[in-house]
Write a structure and sequence with these properties.
By secondary structure, the chain is α/β, with parallel strands linked by helices. Helix content is 35%, strand content 14%. It contains 14 helices and 14 strands.
């Protein structure tokens, strides 16, 4: 699990859930949404130092962190009946979802085929650290057409700084074995790379490594911002554990960040160095999410909640079936219901979720409202909006300096691209 909730991108008998109608509650059209489902909850075989989600196991006092067979059926039934006809993406994340085992995912694929409506097609995506993948996994993922998001933070000397196992040892070699499994079996994959203090000054090296060494053609770069209160900063610096090794529950609170967090200015330079290489030689052959999102925003097509005017359409489902407003807000106060007894469309339409999504726009400080690159940024993710503007107004994104620099730098090229692409979209 990375710290910015990404998911890979690409772009019969029915178990009834009360109140669900394929057309939407009350016959209304379904709201578009995505879900990250966590079949192992927060459980993971690694212990990445910056991973906030490992602490979410504290929300549940039972052992296991495993989605049950009944829970799987309730979730898939609810999801498929809440989505329109056409392609439905079922996204699995964690923790580390492969810890749930191949039999669970074989059952998930079969059950989704059983529950889908005749005019629905299903495609599964899975985010993994890759360390548990073997040829049995490779055969299954290839046969079932899974899209994999593989978490890698760059070459070994950068990746192994924070992405470690339970013994604190390096994991890059294990991840590369998983990468070879995917390549050997022809499984489609994206690279999901978190950007932090260890790799923030190596943007071009990281990009070229993914492109040239790993053969990646789709990449996502996710900035690590470990927000914390001043009082909890010493514990956070120890990997969110106190002196006895006990985890504390991570919450979106405070105005400090850990030393592992990406520096705002370095984040901008990281994106700029990659953009220049990409624009000069890789347009059309390599796809970098931030640049694709910029182009989409320039065309009025929003595909990523972080840089959309509003959010609230990206839900998280825990192993228990509990649904939260967002993967970054799996904490008390943001629980919307459970898939066993409430339609996902009803949760999306709830006053609480509407307020949650709209506040991304309504809480923008004046500096953001008047910003010349607001069209590309839209204030960034609400979880990172805990700084103050030059005149003291709250709500400024901690990464504002980096986003402003990178988006301003890329804007002329992206605008020219939009002019070329726009006629084909009319």
């Amino acid at each position: 699990m990375t710290s910015s909730s990404p998911e890979p991108v690409r772009r019969p008998a029915v178990v009834a859930v009360p109140g669900i109608d394929p057309a939407g509650p009350g016959g209304r059209r379904n709201l578009p949404f995505t879900v990250l489902a966590k079949p192992t909850g927060a459980a993971c075989n690694l212990d990445c130092t910056y991973c906030f989600f490992l602490s979410k196991e504290l929300l549940y006092d039972h052992d296991g962190q495993r989605m049950s067979e009944q829970g799987l059926e309730s979730y898939l039934s609810n999801l498929l009946r809440s989505q329109p006809d056409g392609e439905v993406e079922i996204a699995w994340q964690g923790g580390e979802p492969t810890m749930r085992g191949l039999p669970f995912f074989r059952r998930a694929v079969a059950l989704a085929e059983q529950l889908r409506r005749p005019k629905q097609t299903v495609r599964h995506t899975l985010q993994t650290n890759g360390t548990l993948l073997d040829d049995a996994w490779g055969e299954f993922l290839a046969e079932r057409g899974f899209l994999i998001g593989l978490s890698v933070d760059g070459p070994a000397h950068l990746h192994d700084t924070f992405r470690v196992n339970k013994a604190g040892r390096a994991t890059h070699a294990q991840v590369m074995r998983g990468h070879e499994v995917l390549k050997r079996h022809g499984v489609e994959f994206n690279i999901l790379c978190t950007v932090h203090a260890a790799n923030q000054d190596h943007g071009l090296e990281v990009y070229r490594y993914f492109r040239d060494e790993l053969g990646a053609r789709h990449m996502q770069f996710i900035p690590i911002v470990e927000r914390v209160t001043r009082e909890q900063l010493p514990i956070a610096e120890q990997g969110w554990k106190d002196g006895s090794g006990t985890r504390i529950l991570y919450r979106q609170q405070g105005d400090a960040v850990t030393s592992r967090s990406v520096d705002p200015a370095a984040w901008g330079e990281f994106l700029m160095s990659i953009f220049d290489e990409w624009a000069a030689r890789d347009v059309g052959s390599v796809f970098v999410q931030h640049f694709d999102v910029m182009l989409g925003n320039a065309l009025g097509q929003y595909s990523m909640c972080v840089h959309s005017p509003e959010c609230g359409a990206a839900l998280a489902v825990e192993h228990t079936g509990d649904v939260y407003s967002c993967d970054h807000y799996v904490e008390p106060g943001y629980l919307l219901g459970n898939v066993a007894d409430k339609p996902l469309q009803t949760m999306l339409r709830s006053p609480e979720q509407k307020r949650f999504g709209a506040s991304k726009r309504t809480s923008l400080p004046r500096q953001c409202v008047e910003c010349p690159v607001r069209w590309a940024c839209h204030g960034g993710c609400p979880k990172d909006r805990f700084d103050r503007t030059a005149d003291g107004e709250p709500g400024l994104n901690h990464l504002c300096a980096g986003y402003y620099r990178a988006f301003s730098h890329a804007e002329p090229t992206i605008r020219r691209m939009a002019e070329i692409v726009a006629p084909a979209l009319r």
